[in-house]
Design brief:
single chain, 207 residues, mainly alpha, Glycosyltransferase, elongated
């Protein structure tokens, strides 16, 4: 294999083992009951950065769900974190908790996925959503950027930046830090939700 040090089975095992150890350590950071657990908000959101705060928990939840499927299909019954044992189900529970937060199970009772549920951001920082259809803006769009009114168009499926460390969110079009959707956020949430809708035992082993 191309990543083996000397082409021997022992070399392959050593290199692959280091990848596994790293993956296990990352998963331990994500599990809330682990001694090495990363910081979470009071509402339960894994929190890494203030700007576009949802990108990290959504990506982490996606990876946790993928790893739980790996555990289920490879026969790995448990993950050991500082002497504590966790299962594939624990990883899926973490992944689901982050998805639930995104979809409205949070202190704001707000879905950060635009168009989902009854309460979601109405003033998303998005040109296509903010400017009425058919309007010729020329070189000026400030009146729509600064308008206090809800967007005339719904950017359905867009995932906004997310809450602050105290679980608060300000639905303002000029609040780029929290209210700007990105393709990498929205793509990740699709992967996370589709992964949670499938069941680990159905996944086929790659071996």
């Amino acid at each position: 294999m191309f990543f083996a040090g000397d082409g021997s089975d022992a070399g392959q095992d050593e290199v692959l083992g280091s990848y596994k150890d790293t993956a296990d350590a990352v998963m331990c950071i994500l599990l809330p009951e682990s001694d090495t657990a990363a910081f979470r908000t009071e509402g339960g959101l894994l929190y890494v950065a203030e700007w576009n705060s949802l990108q990290h928990p959504v990506a982490s939840a996606f990876l946790a769900n993928v790893y739980s499927n790996y555990m289920a299909t490879s026969g790995k019954s448990e993950l050991t974190c500082s002497g504590k044992s966790f299962t594939a189900l624990d990883l899926r529970r973490f992944a689901k908790s982050q998805a639930d937060y995104v979809l409205g199970d949070n202190p704001m009772k707000l879905s950060y996925l635009v168009g989902f549920g009854d309460s979601y951001p109405q003033r998303v920082h998005h040109r296509g959503a903010s400017i009425p259809a058919g309007v010729d803006t020329g070189c000026d769009g400030q009146e729509w950027l600064k308008s206090p009114e809800p967007n005339p168009n719904v950017a359905t499926g867009a995932l906004v930046g997310g809450p602050f460390k105290n679980d608060s969110f300000v639905d303002d079009r000029e609040n780029v830090q929290q209210n700007e959707p990105t393709t990498y956020n929205s793509a990740l949430v699709v992967g996370l939700l589709s992964g949670l809708l499938s069941t680990a035992p159905v996944a086929k082993s790659l071996s």
